[in-house]
Amino acid sequence: MDLTTGIGLLAGAGVVVSLILMGGDLRTFYDIHALIVIFGGSFAATMIRFPLASILHGVPLGMKYAFTMRRMTQRDLVDEIAQLAEIARKQGPLGLEKVEVDDPFLAKGVRYVADGYDANFIREALQRDRETFLTHLDEGQKIYRAIGDCAPAFGMVGTLIGMVQMFANMTDPSKLGPFMAIALLATLYGAVVANLLCLPIADKLGGKLHDEEVNRTLMIDGVLMLREAKSPQIVREMLLAYLPEAHQVAEVETAPA
User: Whole-prediction pTM value?
Assistant: First the structure.
């Protein structure tokens, strides 16, 4: 699990709730009309912006990857692929059938090599798989960013509705409080939903989109080198180009002479 996402959300929610409790209670800050304006309006606008299929793919995938962390770093991937190259050199491609690979994408590529598929087929299949995954992850990023853009705007809509209703009922003091609550709480809900939830998740997904693109491209190149039966040392040296420069230097310094 990506602890930073969960900790950040809990910390942000804790700050908001603490400030509320310091000057009142939570019931004061609950209003069903403001919730309808924010969540109903944002959902409706998102439905207009994106096809239903994109929403059904993007929202769950985005939420999943916002709260999960890749099991293997790029350095770990380089080490594992180099180990697979060593196995393939000693036992041949069939020796890869007995190896358990944690990453599903890498496991698929290794299975293709073990089954003796053509290099062009492996490249095209894995690249197609990578692009499909990245497209869905990008859709999730765009959807969360769209909701983050919509929520403050609908907060303003709720504020204007509440003010219009308040001014239209100035002769009835009993109605001024509820309408003022709608006006203020709609803005509050919109700001919290956008700045604590949707926009941070969109930015998190943007970073993970870049990382997954690099990692999956690394795995594709590694799998193709397994298919070409390159030596483990050559595989390692070629894949080190995907690591940050500081990590490349560290790998070179720790490499056996």
Answer: 0.81
